[in-house]
Write a structure and sequence with these properties.
The protein is an all-alpha fold and 437 residues long. The protein is built from 18 helices and no strands.
Length: 437
C-alpha cells in the first residue's frame, strides 16, 4: 500500500508542472486554443456542410487569447479581414479573372484596404483570403463557405472565453513588482557591501550594468501590468479586483523612478571613480561603513515596498484583510526612518570629506540627493505632497484614481467606492505607502 501511495505521488513531471502552472498565460492559451479548435471543428461539421472545415478551428486558434477583451477584438478583426478579402476577390473574378497582373493588383488592393481599416494583425489575411477565393474562380459557394467557417471559428473562440471566463492576472503583476523590488534590494546591498571592501572603478562598472538591466525588467513588469489591466476588461472575475489596478500602477511608477534614481546614483559613483587612482577606493573607513548602513536600510525599504504591493493586491482580490500588510507598512516606515537617519550621518561625514577634497563636493551632493530621491519614491505620500499641483481639486481627483497614496483619500470621500460599484469596504484601513512619521 505504501509503495502504491508513492507511485501516485510520483506522477509524470510534465503533468504536475502543467497543473501547477495552469494560471500562467502560456498554459491558459494553450489549453483554451486546443478546446476551441475541437469545438469549432465539430460546430463547422454540423453547420457548414463541408467535409473538412479546417478554417473554423484555424480561426478559433488564432482568435483565442489569454484575456476576453483581446479575444473579442481579434475576433472582430479576423472576421472583417476575411469578409473584405472575399468581397474583393469576388469583384475581381467577375471583372477580370485570374491573371498575373490581376493577382498583383488584388494583393495591392487587399493589403492597402487592410491597413486603411486597421485590421492588424490580420492585414495579410485579407490578401490570403482574396487569393484563395480568386484561385477557385471567385465561386460564390467557396466564398460563402470561407466566411461561414470564419464566423464559426471566431464565434466559438469568443464564446469559450465568455462562458469560461479567463483568469485575472492581477496577482502575477504584483509578484512582478515584488521581484523588481527584490532585484533593486540586491543591487543596493551589493553596493553597500563592496564599498566597505575597497570598491574601485571595476566594481562601479558592474553596478552600472546591473542598474541598466533593471530598466529591461521594468519594461517586463509594465507588460505584465498591461496584461493584468486588460484581463479585468469585460471579465466578470475582474470586478472585485478593480481596485488593485490603482495599487499596481502606483507601485510600478515608484519602482520605475527608483530604478532611474539608482542608475543615476551608479553614474555618480562612476564619475567619482574617474577621480580616484586604481590604488584608492571610492570610500574607506567610517564613510564606507556609514554608506553601507544607508544602502542596507534603503534595500530593506525597497523589499518591504515590493512585498507590501503584493499584500495589498491580495487583500483587494480576496476581499479581506491580510495581516501581513499592516506589519509590512510598519516595517517600511521604520526602514525609511532609519535610512533618513543614516543619510544625515553620511552627510556629515561626506561634508568633512569635501572639506579635505573640494573637487568631489558636487558628486557627494549628487549622492545624497539621489538617496533622498529613492526614499521619497518609496514614501508615496511624501512624493504626492511634493507635487506642485497636489492641492488642485482636479489634480487630486486624477491622482486618487491612479496612485497608491490616493486610495486613502478616495475611500474617505466615497469616490472610489462609487467607482467600484460599492465593492470596497470603507471601514478598511487603506494607508498604503504612508510612512507613519
Amino acid at each position: 500500500m505504501s509503495s502504491g501511495r508513492y507511485r501516485v505521488l510520483a506522477s509524470p513531471a510534465p503533468v504536475v508542472d502543467l497543473v501547477r502552472r495552469r494560471r500562467e498565460p502560456v498554459v491558459v492559451r494553450t489549453l483554451r486554443s486546443t478546446a476551441a479548435a475541437v469545438l469549432a471543428y465539430l460546430a463547422a461539421l454540423w453547420l457548414s456542410g463541408n467535409a473538412q472545415p479546417l478554417l473554423a478551428p484555424l480561426t478559433a486558434v488564432l482568435v483565442v487569447q489569454v484575456t476576453l477583451y483581446a479575444t473579442l477584438t481579434l475576433g472582430v478583426r479576423r472576421i472583417a479581414s476575411v469578409v473584405a478579402g472575399v468581397l474583393i476577390a469576388v469583384g475581381f473574378a467577375d471583372a477580370v479573372g485570374l491573371t498575373w497582373w490581376s493577382l498583383g493588383l488584388l494583393v495591392l488592393v487587399c493589403l492597402s484596404l487592410g491597413h486603411l481599416l486597421h485590421l492588424a494583425p490580420w492585414v495579410e489575411e485579407v490578401a490570403v483570403t482574396g487569393m484563395l477565393v480568386l484561385g477557385v474562380g471567385g465561386q460564390r459557394t467557396e466564398a460563402v463557405g470561407r466566411v461561414i467557417e470564419t464566423l464559426i471559428g471566431a464565434a466559438v473562440g469568443v464564446l469559450l472565453n465568455a462562458v469560461v471566463a479567463p483568469p485575472v492576472y492581477v496577482e502575477p503583476a504584483g509578484e512582478a513588482i515584488k521581484d523588481l523590488a527584490a532585484r533593486l534590494r540586491l543591487l543596493l546591498l551589493r553596493i553597500g557591501d563592496e564599498l566597505v571592501h575597497a570598491a574601485s572603478a571595476r566594481h562601479v562598472a558592474a553596478w552600472l550594468d546591473e542598474a541598466r538591466r533593471l530598466d529591461h525588467q521594468t519594461a517586463d513588469v509594465d507588460a505584465a501590468l498591461a496584461r493584468a489591466e486588460e484581463s479585468l476588461r469585460l471579465n466578470p472575475r475582474g470586478r472585485p479586483a478593480l481596485g488593485a489596478r490603482l495599487v499596481l500602477r502606483g507601485g510600478l511608477d515608484a519602482m520605475e523612478h527608483c530604478a532611474v534614481g539608482l542608475r543615476s546614483l551608479c553614474r555618480s559613483f562612476a564619475d567619482l571613480a574617474e577621480l580616484r587612482t586604481d590604488e584608492n577606493p571610492l570610500y574607506s573607513g567610517e564613510v564606507a561603513a556609514e554608506l553601507r548602513h544607508l544602502f542596507g536600510h534603503l534595500a530593506d525599504a525597497a523589499d518591504r515596498f515590493g512585498r507590501l504591493v503584493t499584500a495589498e493586491v491580495a487583500a483587494i482580490t480576496a476581499g479581506g484583510a491580510v495581516p501581513a500588510a499592516a506589519q509590512l507598512r510598519q516595517e517600511l516606515a521604520r526602514a525609511l526612518a532609519q535610512a533618513r537617519a543614516g543619510r544625515d550621518r553620511a552627510a556629515a561625514l561626506l561634508r568633512s570629506e569635501s572639506d579635505r577634497d573640494p573637487e568631489v563636493w558636487e558628486l557627494h551632493g549628487a549622492l545624497l540627493a539621489l538617496t533622498e530621491r529613492l526614499m521619497n519614491e518609496l514614501d508615496i505620500d511624501r512624493r504626492l505632497r511634493a507635487s506642485p499641483t497636489a492641492d488642485r481639486p482636479e489634480a487630486r481627483r486624477r491622482r486618487d484614481r491612479t496612485t497608491l497614496g490616493g486610495l486613502l483619500r478616495s475611500l474617505r470621500s466615497g469616490e472610489l467606492r462609487r467607482w467600484l460599484g460599492g465593492r470596497v469596504d470603507p471601514s478598511r484601513n487603506w494607508s498604503f505607502g504612508r510612512s507613519g512619521r
